[in-house]
Amino acid sequence: MKKNIVFFEAVGGSDKGADGHRKDTMPMVNALKAKGWNAEVVQLTDEALRDSTKREEIYKKVRDTADGYVSRVNPGNLKEEKLYFDVLRKLCADGLVGMPHPDAMIGYGAKDALTKLADTPLVPSDTYAYYDPAEAKRIGVTFSDKHDFKKTFPKTLAKGERVLKQNRGSTGEGIWRVRLESSSDYNKVESLPLDTKIICTEAKDNHTEERKLGEFMDFCEHYLVGDNGMLVDMTFLPRIKEGEIRILMLYKTPVYVVHKKPAEGGDAFSATLFSGAKYRYDEPKDWQTLVDWFLGQLPQIKSKLGNYDLPLIWTADFILDTDEKGADRYILGEINCSCVGFTSPEEFMAKIAVMVGDNIVEIVSEKKA
Ligand SMILES: Nc1ncnc2c1ncn2[C@@H]1O[C@H](COP(=O)(O)OP(=O)(O)O)[C@@H](O)[C@H]1O
Ligand SMILES: [Mg+2]
Predict the structure, then answer these.
(1) pLDDT value, residue 229
(2) pLDDT for 170
(3) To test ligand 1's pocket by mutation, which of 74, 111, 207, 269 has the most ligand atoms within 8 angstroms of CB?
(4) Given CA atoms 321, 114, 270, 164 in this order, what sign does their dihedral have?
(5) Which part of the chain is the DUF6815 domain (predicted)?
């Protein structure tokens, strides 16, 4: 073992502090150094990735000097994400510990992870992922009617209020709550006609628009276009008004729970700060039932999402629902694992960085033993 870890960052982007690093990067580097390990930051640019000589140099240097890497590149900060992921994939194939493996980032973080978990208690079984047929082929999904947005969405919406989720972005943009004008309009037809009036609220800012179903579906086509294009269609969970519950995980250990309460009133359903939600940070023990249940689901989550190791720093978001017996149950809304920050609340950051360092040493020592 070399006892050396590389942290990949992108140069630039709004997540960087005055020293050019993400604010949570150097605390992790220093935590490893305090444990007698070495850690270094490798900063990537699109230019370097595009230049095959430079790309090869970066790859070889990391391969020959590090035991593993931690990916701290926010989605969107590198245009050449594919080339970046190719480098990571090669490093993992060479035996470096990927924290996480690029395909784990895709598998856990993509919105269609929900449909892969739809046969578990984590996600309602009537959850669908829609694709463009070409994209379905690219990712190995056998395209059928249930993947066909325009065929299936008029049927799911005929039964009840829905949430449509695009895959890109993570700020509530392209996350639409869609409902009919009156709650008595549901379950009247098997499939809604295209001229049905619908009310759409976007999670980005909770703004509401009145649309025609056909016209709205045409608009949504752009979410399906291109690599990783998709829309996930899940039932609207009205208890979102009680809050979204985020568990911050370090590998298999819960660190804290964020309770995010959407703004009051109207159709507001978004748990993003920008949309006016209020955040509260709790201890895992304050959410013991949820946390214990979730930890029990981890083996299942891992196997359904491609059997990659759990990510190093990740979050799982839950919304309350009520089961047939009237008891509380938690529904998974999404997983984030590409570059989860832990800069707020600020007073937790140093402690979490130390925990990350401990986890890295434990994971790498176990893998390299
Ligand atoms: N099924 C649902 N029922 C009710 N609200 C939801 C549902 N899914 C998502 N939301 C709300 O929409 C917000 C954004 O959705 P999310 O899946 O977290 O996408 P993003 O990647 O934009 O964070 C959530 O924070 C939550 O407030
Ligand atoms: Mg979210």
Answers:
(1) 96
(2) 78
(3) 269
(4) negative
(5) 242-341
- Superfamily for the 240-342 domain: ATP-grasp fold, B domain (3.30.470.20)
Question: Cα of 369 to ligand 1 centre, how many Å?
Answer: 41
| Span from the CA of 279 to the centroid of ligand 1 (angstroms) | 15
pLDDT digits over 258-302, tens only? 999 999 999 999 999 999 999 999 999 999 999 999 999 999 999
pLDDT beyond 90 at 197: yes
Residue nearest to atom 14 of ligand 1 (CA): 172
Question: What topology is assigned to 4-100+348-368 in CATH?
Answer: Rossmann fold (3.40.50)
Contact partners, residue 349, CB within 8 Å, separation at least 6: 23, 24, 27, 342, 343
Pairwise CA distance, residues 212 & 198, whole Å: 6
Q: Residue 248 — φ and ψ, nearest 5°?
A: -90, 125
366: pLDDT confidence band, cut at 50, 70 and 90?
very high
Copy the structure tokens of residue 133: 């047929």
| Ligand 2 centroid distance, CA of 170 (Å) | 6
Of 156, 157, 233, 240, which is best to mutate to test ligand 1, by the most ligand atoms within 8 angstroms of its C-beta?
A: 240
Domain ranges of the chain: 4-100+348-368, 125-237, 240-342
The helix (run of H) or strand (run of E) holding residue 208 is strand 207-212
Q: Which of 33-42, 63-72, 341-350 has the lowest mean pLDDT?
A: 341-350
Reported as a single tens digit per residue, the pLDDT across 340-352 is 999 989 999 999 9
Confidence category of residue 102, pLDDT binned at 50, 70, 90: very high
CA distance 55 to 51: 6
Q: How far is the CA of 204 from the centre of ligand 1 (A)?
A: 10
Q: How far is the CA of 197 from the centre of ligand 2 (A)?
A: 27
